[in-house]
Amino acid sequence: MHLNFPYPCIIILASIFSLFYLFSSYQPSMQYSVNFEESILDDQINSTFPITFYHNAYVDYRFTPPRLRIFSLNQCIKSDKNFLLVDIFYEGVSEPTQVKVFGEPLEGACPSTYGPAKPCFYVAHTFFTDLIRTGGMTKVLIHMGSRKVTLSVKEINKRFEKGITLCLQPVYYYSQWQNIVLYIEAWRAQGATRFIVFYHSSTKDTKKVLDYYRGLGIIEIRSWPSFGSLPLEIADKHPKIDDSVFIFSYFLAMNICILDIKTTIGSIADFDEVMVPINGTMLDYATREMTGTNVGALSFGNNYVAMEPTIYSSDFSGVSKPIFISKGGPSKYIFNASVIDLAQVHWAKSFTDSSKKSKGGDGALLHMRYGFDPSKEKTLNKPFRYFPDNQKEHIRNMQDTANKIFNGSVPTFNSNFIDTLNDCVKQINKRGNTCRSTGGMCKKEMDKVNEWVYDRTERIFLSGA
């Protein structure tokens, strides 16, 4: 059969075929890399956006499929629109895989709904996406047009090592070394085997205590220095990061910390907070409650306590019988480290397994808040104690430990340091509509009263260039 096409139709068809071939065979540069500012996509976070990243990205194998997780401090975004353009590199694969990664604020709202945090410009965020390809990831490259950031990669798996890991929110201008001794020894008696301390600054005496326990292999110190600066091209267009982030961004630190837990149970508790069950150890109690059940976290009611004599006299004998103050406060919790997804300060925000729930625990949070004078407070009798057994032996051990750390010359407590910090926070609060950014806003006042041991590690936070 003979087809009779006019000559112009043949030319048009040939042109269409050529154009089709050209576009189908063309691989745009943004498939694997973005080299020019004009390649920015709609709603992509670009080089002018104020953002800095924690230096590690995480591959979280607790999820099915595994999830890539990136942590940052940045101005608020539209969670359903703004995204990072990310190249994922794998060992033995020449070309990276490129993905769009969307994010959300760790607290749940941006700006924060909490008064002192609401004015803060930089808010902790997490960006995440499910992964099709797994294993052998070597690095992550974030494209923001002409600005790029490379992150190293850590893998997160389910936890099988029996024990409790404590996450310490950023330690800053810390002087109450006595708290640390009680905290570590009490939590160890409750079954804790590992402590992760995010460290910014402290007195020399406090650092000596931390270094002692680190030398025993009990504490791991994570650097939490200044958040650094934005690239020069945009730095003067936005607030300094240290001056406009809420209390050293503890939301960011604690959610990074829970990914570093290797034990079955974890918790986020300050140096003045110890959770105890009504009977036995916390490890045994939590293990029973969370094994083979839908319990993902156990919450414990706050109990403010004081001691006579105070431990700030370096006499730990008052620990044997804490004085309970008749004042309420927010609870704290422990969690199954294999299923915790995102953490809030006082509750588990989400779990990797949607069937997991939080439950009230049979025990108490012992919260030794600085400044309580039991002679001026209404007190209560309660059965809870820091140690599950052998109170005298534990107290003697704490006393001996303090003497050992300081070679028999135990330093006296100087209240001026914590008083100065509290006064600075009060002044910030008086200004109104001001971010409680103690890192940048209190540094000048704190440096006047002491020679602090700062963490000055570089490249913990990366803004790109």
TrEMBL record:
Keywords: Glycosyltransferase, Membrane, Transferase, Transmembrane, Transmembrane helix. Coiled coil: none annotated. Its main location: membrane. The keyword Membrane applies. It is a single-pass membrane protein. The keyword Cell membrane does not apply. GO terms for cellular component: membrane. It is found in: Membrane. Its EC number is 2.4.1.-. The chain crosses the membrane at residues 7-26. GO terms for molecular function: glycosyltransferase activity. Belongs to the glycosyltransferase 92 family. PANTHER family: BIOFILM ABSENT ON HEAD (AFTER YERSINIA EXPOSURE)-RELATED (PTHR47024), GLYCOSYLTRANSFERASE FAMILY 92 PROTEIN (PTHR47024:SF2). This is Glycosyltransferase family 92 protein. It comes from Caenorhabditis nigoni.
